[in-house]
Amino acid sequence: MKLLCVQMIKDLLGEPINYQKVTKLTEDAKFESGDVKASLAVLEFVLCSAAKYNVDGNSLSSELQQLGLPKEHASALCKVYEDKQAELQDQLKSQSLRLSRLAGVSWRVDYTLCSSELAEVNEPSVQLRLNIQDGATGVINPIAFTLSDSKLRVLLTELKTAQQQMSELS
């Protein structure tokens, strides 16, 4: 059980899982392919849930025993979990809440000298292009829009206010 947990922790921390080792570890128990996959899925769920909710090793062991896992298996799992709990929590934090981020900005100022459609001429407008990188896929999507001078000032004021509020929270 301990060696199987070690393999799962390695996988959760970003290292590739060694399926040959896992197969060798489960041969003695005469696990079939489906049983091995189910065991790994359960271990992943238990370890991730315990790390997510900051469960200590003793509580986890007690809960697993109440669910019917033998004490020696629960102890082995909890020993591995306690050794890597902080690393596992850091890894899960880095993977959670992946928000889109600003990958780049480009802008230009245009002046309209005359127009049959605009009442105001000689008023500057700002062409703004934001390149947004999707947090999950990493794909960059451009978003382009035009702002008048007054709307640009309002946008800048609102962004500065939001930045100040965020810095106060952290």
Q: Total domains, how many? A: 2
What is the N-to-C succession of helices and strands?
A: HHHHHEEEH
Helix run count: 6
How many whole angstroms does the radius of gyration measure?
A: 27 Å
Global mean pLDDT: 90
Q: Helix fraction?
A: 55-70%
What is the CA–CA distance across the termini?
41 Å
Note the main sheet. 3 strands, antiparallel
The overall strand count is 3
Report strand order across the widest sheet: 1-2-3
Query: Which spans of ≥5 residues are poorly predicted at pLDDT below 50?
Result: none
- Secondary-structure content class: alpha+beta
Based on CA inertia axes, which overall geometry fits? elongated
The portion of residues forming beta strands comes to 15-25%
What does this structure look like?
The protein is α+β, with helices and mostly antiparallel strands. It has two domains: 2-95, no CATH class; 101-169. 56% of the residues lie in helices and 18% in strands. It is built from six helices and three strands, in the order αααααβββα. It has helices at residues 2-12, 19-27, 33-52, 57-66, 71-95, 149-169, and strands at residues 101-111, 124-133, 140-148. It has a three-stranded antiparallel β-sheet. A hairpin with a 6-residue loop joins strand 2 (124-133) and strand 3 (140-148). Helix 1 packs across helix 3 (33-52), helix 1 (2-12) packs parallel to helix 5 and helix 3 (33-52) packs across helix 5 (71-95). The longest helix has 25 residues, at 71-95. The radius of gyration is 27 Å and the shape is elongated. The protein starts with a helix and ends with a helix. The mean pLDDT is 90.
